Amino acid sequence: MQALLEVEDLCVHFSARDGKVVRAADGVGFHIHEGESLGLLGESGSGKSVTALSLLRLLPPGGRIVEGRIRFRGEDLSLVPDRRMQQIRGSQIAMIFQEPGIALCPVVSVGSQIADVIATHRGWPKDRCRKEADQLLSAVGLPEPTRFFPAFPHQLSGGQLQRVVIALALAGQPKLLIADEPTTALDMKLQHEVLTLVQELRKSLRMSVLWITHDPDVLRVLADRIVVMYAGRVVEVGSAEQILHRPQHPYTVSLLRCAPQTRPAGSALRKQPLPVIDGNVPNLASLPMECRFAPRCPERMDICTEREPGLTQTESGRVVRCFKYGG
Amino acid sequence: MRYFVRRLAHALILLVAISVLTFFFAELAPGNYFDEMRLNPQISPEAVESMREKYGLDRSLPARYWEWILSVARGEWGFSFANNLPVAPLLWSRAGNTLVLTLTATLLAWALAIPLGTWWAAFGERRWWDRLWGLGTAAILSVPEILLALLFLLVALKTRAFPVGGMFSVHAAELSTWARLRDLGWHLILPGTVLAVSSLGVLIRHTRASVAEALAAPYVRAVRARGISERRLLFRYVLPVAANPLITLFGFSIGSLLSGSLLVEAVMGWPGLGSLLLEAILARDLYVVIGAVMCSAFFLVAGNLVADVLLYLSDPRIRAE
Amino acid sequence: MGKGFVVRAVDGVDLEIRQGQTLALVGPSGSGKSTLARCVLRLEAPTSGQIWFDGVDIVALGRNQLRKLRPRMQLVFQDAARAMNPRLPAADIVAEPLRIQKRGTLAEQRHRAVELMERVGLSEDMADRSPLEMSGGQRQRLAIARALALAPQLIVLDEALSALDRIVQAQIANLLLELQRELHLTYLLIAHDLNLADHLADEIAVMSSGRIVARAATPEVTSQALLVALLAAQGAIATSPREPGPEEVKTT
User: Fold this and answer.
1) Burial class (CB in 10 A: 0-12, 13-18, 19+), B9
2) CA–CA separation, B235 and B69 (whole Å)
């Protein structure tokens, strides 16, 4: 069955002030099926957000898609004209961003912003849009229409704002929802609420979700499959179970091992150093000809500093970019 | 509501303070109306003294201030020595003329600045575009008002297309209302344009800065991600946010134009507060000076109050206070 | 707040931290953690109560005495960049407290700044870089270096690790533990991540609506599930499972 979204060889570059080229994403490829939930796991500088923004062609100034194909339901989004892209945004593919408060225009009421999306994509008359907006607000857990429709963002709490943002994303009835670290700025209770809400809605709407996060724990309950990215490259792809319980790429292994855990009583591991690799993400403007993880890799071999590995299939539906497994 | 009461109270206190200061500064300035007379050998010193007494100029400063307050309460606003009239009627007619001129100029300036500034900001990522506009506005900014005024007068003289000063033609009283308005219009064009252009440079820059800042806000990307068209984005989501600092500026610009049109009025012969003030200063006509300054101050404060009202109406966040 | 309303941001809190130890303060937003921290640092004056620092009640101190007290307690925020002058190079930012307290010559200050930067893992060639050019993790390290400049006894970490990527968070957690051992520092850690709190702290206090609703010395907790259940029952936080396949404790 053809995938809902197929990304192939996506390269996104940024031109820096001094003329250098930052290779934010290089040769990124993955696919999402209808109804599937894919996690894009990586830290700052991995290229995950840039990849997501490319799907909607919302790159900041200076960024451009240099190469690659983004096939969504038969269309290549990297090539379609701007008008068509505008139609797709919000109605086929929707995106929610990191801090809910900043995704909302402060001077337009929350309900009007939702109604606006409905009007844009479905062309209904004003009162029908308003009714629909009220229903959406209910669906995300803000059921009092007279209270919430005319409210302005500064009148709502963080949790309520995040629900509004979800309602906004769903207003166009998208087939694919991209969630870019939507819970990072929230406290744990809210995080949990938001994630549960999206899960429920996703199931009832048969929507695919692309979760972008640096926290593997979030993906544990949410994702069917996971793509791990490091320094602009895809380094590992597999099912959530494979990646989280039997990680193969040394980066994924480090990522999963380093987190603090709640210890059982009397544990000697408390207040001991966590097992973590040193160093930082490489400078994406000047990448040497080697595996991008090599400088920090605890399992580095000679060949790792000579060239970059390719993606090897290690199991069915699983690939790794590492010389340990071929490449 | 409390918001406005507070603002109003501030405004009143400010005006009172200005009146006191003006009185004080006028006192510090050397000379008074009767000095000219003293130089005249035909008028005896006693006559001068008695006139001074008559007009109360020999009393102490606080006493004079009090007298003036009473006079204001009576609606006279003091006495004009040069014109032998109470100050008030002079003020009102001239103030009205100034209002006509500066309001027209303000509206003209803003009507140009907002679209131009927005246009500049909307494509501001391209460096050459940015540079071009920057240079253009800097050029307009740096031309002194008086130079502009003289230039326009020159144009008027040479082309004979525009009247060279004054507010109405000599025979204006005989014209029909419609013709009178047209006459007014023709007379307004030059001084109005000078005033408008002199503030245009700054206004365009401020508009652009405001719009550019609003465009750079994180929510803009989120709104685009919903598929909202660029046009709707600009008008519904960006401009209202950009409007906030601009509205405040609007209030200031009315106020400052009103109080700062003196030069243009004087040079281009517009019979407004500015030229009244100039005449009065030269003649040492004390109460006219004070009256005109108070009028100016009043306009400035009123302009700011207007800005406050507009801000309240346009920004829901202010209403929440 | 409006007329006639008094908000009890911190309501009858009793706490103590021993020197060289870490107390973690967890709770949802709005529970009063930051307010409490600010009181401890005497950035705010509590309405009532006492705060004993090294045997002295700092609530009662006058301005001059407070000024002498300040170097002994420092603060690191969640987003350190907001507390840094972006026009200053990194070394100057670290040296700023020395400059304000007038300690040492300029050369000595610079030397100490570079020393501190290296101690927190920032190489010397970063000394002249602007904080804007650094990654989030590097900025937090810089903030820690600055906090160490005056050799404090207490450091308040207000969600200082919360905005960081996992690997960076672990690196900095290790750094903090190292520094604590080496310099005998005392930490007041405000966090919303229970796992992090549990790993770094000797004692955990849970705050909700201005009160401390649960407190446990971490080594004495008899079972993790009990602690979590206790906390969850207060509705204070939600946890997410860390280890493969544990029981997931959900809150409303």
Assistant:
1) exposed
2) 49
**Å between B224 CA and nearest CA of chain A:** 8
> A175 touching B, CB under 8 A?
no
Domain spanning C22-78+154-233: CATH 3.30.300.30: no
In order of their start, the domains of chain B are 92-284 (1.10.3720.10)
Q: What are phi and psi of A165, to 5 degrees?
A: -60, -40
Position A292 scores a pLDDT of 92
Q: What is the pLDDT of residues B266-291, one digit of tens each?
A: 888 888 888 888 888 888 888 888 88
Give dist(CA A322, CA A19) in Å, integer.
Answer: 31
Hey, are the CB atoms on B240 and A108 less than 8 Å from each other?
yes
Residue B224: list chain A partners with CB under 8 A: 58, 89
CA distance B10 to B41: 50
At residue C124, φ and ψ (nearest 5 deg) are -60, -30
Best residue in B123, B210, B215, B219 to probe A by mutation, most A CBs within 10 Å?
B219
What three-state secondary structure class fits B198?
A: helix
In 3D space, the residue among B114, B303, B103, B300 whose CA is nearest the CA of residue B203 turns out to be B114
List the single residue in B219, B226, B320 with the smallest CB-CB distance to A117.
B226
Higher per-residue pLDDT: B172 or C106: C106
Look at residues A54, A49, A59, A60 and name the one whose alpha carbon lies nearest to residue A79.
A54
Distance CA(C175)–CA(C191), nearest Å, equals 17
Residue with tokens 């909202």: B228
Interchain pair C224, A215: CB under 8 A: no
Asked if A117 reaches chain B (Cβ–Cβ under 8 Å), the answer is yes
Q: Is A81 on the interface with B (CB under 8 A)?
A: no
pLDDT tens digit sequence for B187-245:
888 888 888 988 888 899 999 999 998 888 889 999 999 999 988 998 999 988 888 88
Check A103 against B222: CB less than 8 A apart: yes
Token pair listed for C240: 């997410």
Look at residues B82, B93, B95, B90 and name the one whose alpha carbon lies nearest to residue B285. B82
What distances in angstroms separate CA A234 from CA A24, A52, A249, one per listed residue? 12, 13, 11
Q: Is the CB of B241 inside 8 Å of chain A's CB atoms?
A: yes
Q: Alpha helix locations (H) across B261-285?
A: 262-268, 273-283
Three-class SS of A129-193: HHHHHHHHHHHCCCCCHHHHCCCCHHHCCHHHHHHHHHHHHHCCCCCEEEEECCCCCCCHHHHHH
Q: B13 in helix, strand or coil?
A: helix
Q: Chain A interface, mutation test: which of C23, C140, C167, most A Cβ atoms within 10 Å?
A: C167
Tell if the CB–CB gap between B228 and A116 is shorter than 8 Å: yes
B315: nearest CB among A94, A103, A107? A107
Q: What are the structural domain ranges in chain C?
A: 22-78+154-233
- Distance separating alpha carbons of residues A118 and A247, to the nearest angstrom: 42
Chains C and B make contact, 3+ CB pairs within 8 Å: no
Q: Is the pLDDT of residue C17 over 60?
A: yes
Q: Say if B316 is an interface residue toward chain A (CB within 8 Å).
A: yes
Distance CA B287, CA B80 (A): 6
Q: Based on the number of CB atoms within 10 Å of its own CB, is B159 exposed (0-12), middle (13-18) or buried (19 or more)?
A: exposed
The percent helix, strand, coil of chain A (3-state, each to 5) is: 35, 25, 40
> How many degrees, rounded to 5, is the angle at CA C177 between CA C174 and CA C180?
150
Give the Cβ contact number of residue C143 at 10 Å.
Answer: 26
Q: Which residues of A touch C196 (CB under 8 A)?
A: 260
